[in-house]
Every structure is written in structure tokens, then in C-alpha cells.
């Protein structure tokens, strides 16, 4: 029995010493110390040993087991140390190399223009108000004095969800909702996304952004409107920017006007940006139509007001001299990184 145990022990220690990977050590452990291992089989044969010899045999088995387990543990640590040293050597970091710069995002040119625009009007006492993009026909058309037979209500121009629900074509419904509440006076700016059935090209998109302003109070006149827009134009495009009104027609304002500004590029002398005219059409505006006031529950004999609508993409293109609106939506980093 002693010779058999010594042979098992010697064989196990030899295999452990020659092992180069941990998996080999696991195989030795299972073969010698496992449930069906050689040392375990010796313990099972103890019933065949004379009673007076069992303590000695048991002690020899335990000594062999302890020697093998100690050798396994030491060899495992040795192999792991060698693997770690090799890995550290392979993964050495050169601390003199420059770090990898992380890409950080920044504001979109549309967002930059919007914040600049909002800053001007907030400085004049305006409140920023937003509303739903999916809107009722009542607020998008009816309360804004746009009759049922108006071309703007044609399905070719408007995205209808149902007969009475649509994707808003302007942010004016926000103004109608605010007027309907009757909390006067009103000074609001309503930015947001709008939708129209336009083909995509350099100046059009089925989804774009508008920023509309509304002022309702006693004694508001066309002079207040022009003064407000003149101040905005100076702060947004430059101190020397001037504005002029041209008569126009909008169903929800009367009188109505198209507002032009002197070309901020050439100062009104004529250039490529203004197509030689010295002026750039910038927005539509006018005095709020008495019928719109009345339909929204405001007495037009007591209150008056003005409204204007600015195409955000339009002023962004002009401010940064971008010649194609599609660049704002294509997510080309070569373009966006310029801002």
C-alpha cells in the first residue's frame, strides 16, 4: 500500500511540475483527487486493510493528498504570475503618447440662431410658449380667419390625420390658444416645428421651424410692430440693419406686410446675397385681424395687437450664409463642425 501511494504521489508531482497551463493542473486534480481519482480509490479500499494498519494507511493517504494539493496550489500561482507578467509586458502603456480626444457635441446652427433670436425678444419682455405639433383644424385655421375653402387647407398643402386633426402648418395655433385663455396683455414668442407638403429642395422641406410673435394690449399700433422688428433686426443681423414694410395680404392680420431688411452682407449696396437689390425679404407680419381677436374672445374695440412669423431656417441660412437648406438636416459632420 505504501509503495502504491508513493507511486501515485510521485506521478502526480511530476505531472504538476511539468504542467504549463492551468487546465493541465485541473486534469491532474481530477485524475488524482476527484471522486473517481486514484487517491480516492485507495481510500475506498481501506475496508480491505487490517484494522490495526488503517490509521497508518489513512495518515499516508492524507500526507499524499496534502503534498499534491500544496503542489497544485503553488504551481497554479506560478503559472498565473507568469501569465500576468506576459500580459503586462504585452500591454505596456506608453504614457508619453497623447490621449485619445473624445468627440463632444455642440449646438446645431438652427439651435444657435433660435437662442440668439429668443434672447432678443426675451430682452423685450416676451414669454416663450410652445404648443402641440398635432393640432385641431379649429386652432390651425378656423380661429385664424382662414375659411374652409382657403387653398392652404387643401390636402396638397396640409398633412391631415383626420378631417379635423392635422399636423400644424404654422405655430399660430399657439397664439390662438393663448388668446382664448383671455389673460391680457399678451407678449409671447412661439417657436416650433411645422409641416407642409413641400418637395425637398435647397429652400423647402416638408418639416421645418417657425418662430411667431404676438402682442395684444391696449393702444398697440403698426409703429410698435415696426419698432420691434427693427430692434430685433439690429441685434440679430447687425447694428446698421434697417427694415422696410411692403403691403401684403394674410388672412389673420389686417393690415399685413412683408418685412425686408437691408442686406447685412453689403449694407444695401447690392451683392450676391441680396441678388443686387440691397434688400432681403425676411418675414411676414401685420396687425391682428379684428375677427381673429373677436373669435378668440377679445374685444377688438378695446384691444389691438400685432403678429409676425419668422422662418427659423431662413434666418439661419442668411445669418451663416448657407446656400442649401438640406445641409441643416443631412448630419454631415464636415458641415456641422464649422459651427
UniProtKB/TrEMBL annotation:
Any one GO BP annotation for this protein: phenylalanyl-tRNA aminoacylation
NCBIfam families xref list: pheS
UniProt organism field: Coprococcus eutactus
Name of this protein: Phenylalanine--tRNA ligase alpha subunit
Assigned keywords, A-Z: Aminoacyl-tRNA synthetase, ATP-binding, Cytoplasm, Ligase, Magnesium, Metal-binding, Nucleotide-binding, Protein biosynthesis
UniProt cofactor note: Binds 2 magnesium ions per tetramer.
Gene name in the database record: pheS
Compartments, record wording: Cytoplasm
Domain Aminoacyl-transfer RNA synthetases class-II family profile as annotated: residue spans: 117-330
HAMAP family registered for this protein in UniProt: Phe_tRNA_synth_alpha1
PROSITE patterns per record: AA_TRNA_LIGASE_II
